[in-house]
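Hi team, as promised in this morning's meeting, here are the two structures we talked about. I've kept the exact order from the run log so nobody has to guess. The first one is mostly here for context; it's the second one we should focus on when we meet again. Sequence first, then the predicted structure tokens.
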Amino acid sequence: KERTARLDGALTALVLEHGRVCAGGSCSNCCSRVLLPHLVTGFECDEMIRRANFFLPLLSESDVAVAARQDTYYNAGGDMRLHLLYMRLVERQRRLLARQYDLPLHTVSLRSSFVSRIQGGKNPVPYSHLHVDECSTASFHYSSILYLTDSKMSDGGSLVFSDTCIGGERVLTRFPPKRGQVLMLSSGWENAHFVEPLSQDAPVRYAVPSFFSTVPPIEEYGSLAYKQSEADKGVISEMAAKAHAFYELAVAPKSVDDFFNYKQRWGQFFPF
């Protein structure tokens, strides 16, 4: 139940207890890692890559191992098709995650998501350390990685789980990226993991990591617009006001804070 961020040896040396930390949230007792093949179509993968590449540095001009852009970046960049596709794919995963972990759908919200591009032959330092998502950020209760491209086992780029077995030895379990596949996991110490570097000749790997939380919305970001005076006075129906709020906060937000406000309350907009 340690909450201090730790990596590699410092992480494996921790003495663990039963149960989830789930800081500030309402996680279930279910813990697992689940592989969901073909959750996303090839067309959706190609469209994500094609449109996201417009916002990422050119491969010929980039010397970094990992190039990434947050979900809010695409809306700010004005690509509405990419923004809506992104939201649809995240919602697909959110619903399956709630079902897998026996969570009321309205309690599950998005905390962070981004498109990640890893180049072959470069060590992705942020990912290559053994780590636990909930240890890195306390509100990351569940994680989901959508793979947009394939990688062979020999290419590297696999997500590797490191488990303790009897005798204290670490057992490594590798999941190579498969196009359209989603790897979903509870984000606690039961799922310590790292990403293997890609080999020199490996194709570029694209993925969309998303991190979900059961922490209630942060109050300082204000209440939902549909709870404001017009709906209270009966000028418009609550359903119409809710649709108006969804458009202003999620579809066409005027600021990063607007979309963050929506992400905090994602489950309130789609509770069923």
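And here is the second protein, the one for discussion:
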Amino acid sequence: MPLSAERKTEYFTRMKELLTTYTKLFVVSVDNVGSSQLQSTRRGLRGKAEILMGKNTMMRKCIKEYVEENPGTSVEGLVDCCRGNVGFVFTNGDLGEIREVLESNVRPAPAKVGSLAPSQVIVPKGPTGCDPGQTAFFQTLQIATKITRGQIEMVNDTPLIAEGERVTASQAALLQKLGIEPFTYGLVLKSVYDNGSLFDAKVLDITDDVLAAKFSQALSMLASLSLALNIPTQASVPHSIANAFKAILSITIGLDNYSFDKADVYREYLADPSKFASAGGGGGGDAGPAEEAAPEEEEEEEADMGGGVDMFGGGDDGDGGY
């Protein structure tokens, strides 16, 4: 039933208000989403975002009128998004948070005859609960079965429906017999509009960690190229300074009459290699100081036994105290 002129006016006013109030929105597909599920999503977004549905022709006309009334606005790109069963989710909040709410509100649904499968359906092997008289039904679908304890049992996991394939009557009947609801339906993100930029929703999969890793990789590559070409850049300067210090240090270590504060530490290490062990290398941990303390105790014992002390504790006079 077509909307009355008053309802259309209210809808246009409402959509223009949303386009003015919010700077971000999701373009979502609502195929196979019922009214109760949509209301549940609205409750989850209350205070964070607003959902607007409508006919594509009305939405396109409203956006075009808004562009004419507001020259220079960047929402004109949304006209091409009004294709299929879509709606808008307006927000000024964090897009990632709104996305989590939208993707979490999904419900399982049975396979309907003639519908396109949003994902592949694989029926697991095992008992089906069907009596042996229905073996022909499984044979029609070319599913290997056997009779176990008075019921049909599937021998292997069976790919029943491919993604994007239309569900046939036999496939839907089998899934219904097995009590399997293979699909989940909810608001599917198609595009994202953010302050004049319109991009695919997959861009939101790029997290801060991914960006940091990509930046670090690019920075390392830039530093390597700069060093190879002998062209100093902000990325290569720290490496150039480190390489220069290594060159100066190697020359200084070879000199006997010159040194500087930073080189003295390395001279000391090279002069006494035992300090490398005391630094806790490998898995020794605190074993270094204990190992150093042990030889000192042995030296003290040898010092106490000096002079004419024999192995039985006797002194110079040969009296062992016995």
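Starting points for discussion:
The mean pLDDT is 80.
Residues 9 and 138 are 56 Å apart (CA to CA).
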